Amino acid sequence: MDIGSTIRAIRKRKNITIAQICEECGLSQGFMSQVETNKTSPSISTLESIAQALKVPLAYLLLKKEDRMHIVRKNERRITTSGADKLKVEHMSSSKNVKMMLVELPPGSSTGVVPHAHEGEEVHVVMKGRIYAEQGDDAAEFEEGDSFSWHACTPHLVRNIGEDTAIVLISIYTENDSGLDLL
């Protein structure tokens, strides 16, 4: 773990000096310097004092960098195409088990000629347009603002039944990250 670097980064971002942290926590500047350079590991109670002085939750200091907030700006989204209809897929953000994307379906296009299945669970929100969704014996039409969800292990498909491009926000949850390149 790189707790020291995290402490140092927070401290510098908040313009707090080592002396201020030490005064509030009752620590020596030498000890605090060793903590920040990862040369010593503080006890949980000392970490709790440091977290309070930095005004952050103790749990935040214990997070790995990859487990912290991940930001994807609109102009930085990865864009791919999917299926025979070359649906535009904007990859908005993802974590280890969840992937979120915006899918554009031109009029008459669909996620495939036949229903397909894969690992995971999906939640859909129709942001624009009209779509038809089918899974097994269940089928329905949806319009802007409507949402639906399903276990993706049962074959399913989505088709644009409107006259304009439909945009669907899809969130996919899988038990592991290997199933996240599904669309």
From TrEMBL:
SUPFAM superfamilies: lambda repressor-like DNA-binding domains, RmlC-like cupins. Residues 7-61 form the HTH cro/C1-type domain. InterPro entries: Cro/C1-type_HTH (IPR001387), Cupin_2 (IPR013096), Lambda_DNA-bd_dom_sf (IPR010982), RmlC-like_jellyroll (IPR014710), RmlC_Cupin_sf (IPR011051), TransReg_Diox_bact_type (IPR050807). The keyword Metal-binding does not apply. Pfam families: Cupin_2, HTH_3. CDD domains: cupin_XRE_C (cd02209), HTH_XRE (cd00093). Keywords: DNA-binding. This is Helix-turn-helix domain-containing protein. It comes from Paenibacillus planticolens.
